[in-house]
Amino acid sequence: MISKHKLISSLPSPSLSLMAFSEELGVVNEAFSGLGIDEKSLISILGKWDANQLKSFRLGTSRFFGEDERSFEKLVEHQINQLKNDFLRFKSALVLWTMHPWERDARLIKDALLDGPKSNNVIVEIACTRSSEELLGARRAYHSIYERSVEEDVASYITTTERKLFVALVSAYRYEGTKVNEELAKSEAKIVFEALKNADKKNPLLDDDVVTILAIRSKLHIMSLFQHYKKISANSIDVDLGTNESLKDTVQCICAPPTYFCKVMEAAMVKEADENTREGLTRVIVTRADVDMKNIKEVYQHKYAITLSEKIKVVANGNYKDFLLTLISREETK
């Protein structure tokens, strides 16, 4: 908070009351809080403030500005980067929305590879929540844009134990029909059970059978497999996967995409989330607005006891907020 002494000493004239200026400062601070920026408030207030009022803002906003040994108020470096990200949030969402879905996924995969392990879930997300044709389209777009295949870049950039699984997932073209071989699903459930039971001896991510099952079997087959798995283990697959985040994301993206997407969005809207996590809100809404947003919103409200639109209104600002609200409401206007 800004002290009354600082406010009074820096007010330009008695014509602007302490209360009025305090209210404007509150509006400006609110405009900078959350995801995105409240551009209209900043334009209407900052555009008319004089040098003394701006100085008062700098002196009293310690989360943005700090004084050096010469009493010079300068922006905190971390906040400069955060403000840049927030100002760009609307632009990034708009650019992603206008892209062809295949190009968008290709660029998201490339960005995830460049980000490193912290964005591994994006690769799993795209590989496991898209249809076979959509994933094939993304692979074609990737080849066209970067003149390399997705498979070779995943193999090149991913150097951890996830490499085998990720290469298999992005290379997949799953059967999408309704037929499920229950005997095969039951047999493969035993294979997965044994692999997880012996995870201390061999990482399931390196198990060829587990990787093959997750990468090539139809989603209905895998869902049936996990039902058989629960009968064998007495636990759900989620419980037995423990802390293996890559496998957990893979299973959730295949079997319960709306639940996965809700998890990503909720993490993105936590105040302390890092920038990489925050980007998940834009990514999910832009990529799912015309796919399964209705289901996602229903799951979100059931899981978090608040509608997605209400949560966005609380945490987001300005044009970014308005754009997200428009996208998640698209099916209501059709």
Descriptors:
single chain; 334 residues; mainly alpha; Annexin V, domain 1; 3 domains; two-stranded antiparallel sheet
Compressed to H and E, one letter per element, the order equals HHHHEEHHHHHHHHHHHHHHHH
Query: Helix/strand-derived class?
Result: mainly alpha
Tell me roughly what share of residues is in helical segments.
55-70%
Shape category: elongated
Strand runs, count? 2
Give the name of the CATH superfamily of the largest domain: Annexin
Distance separating the two termini:
46 Å
Strand order of the largest sheet: 1-2
Indicate how many domains the architecture comprises: 3
Task: Briefly say what this structure is.
By secondary structure, this protein is mainly α. 69% of the residues lie in helices and 2% in strands. A two-stranded antiparallel ribbon has the order 1-2.
Kindly describe this structure.
The protein has 334 residues and is mainly alpha-helical. The protein folds into three domains: 4-75, Annexin V, domain 1 (Orthogonal Bundle); 98-255, Orthogonal Bundle (Annexin V, domain 1), CATH 1.10.220; 258-333, Annexin V, domain 1 (Orthogonal Bundle), CATH 1.10.220. The protein is built from 20 helices and two strands. It has helices spanning 4-10, 18-31, 39-46, 51-60, 77-98, 101-115, 120-129, 132-146, 150-157, 163-171, 182-197, 208-216, 219-233, 237-241, 245-255, 257-268, 275-288, 293-304, 308-315, 318-328, and strands at residues 65-67, 73-75. It has a two-stranded antiparallel ribbon with strand order 1-2. The longest helix is centred in the first third of the chain and has 22 residues, at 77-98. The chain is elongated. 33% of the residues are buried. One of its GO terms (cellular component) is plasma membrane.
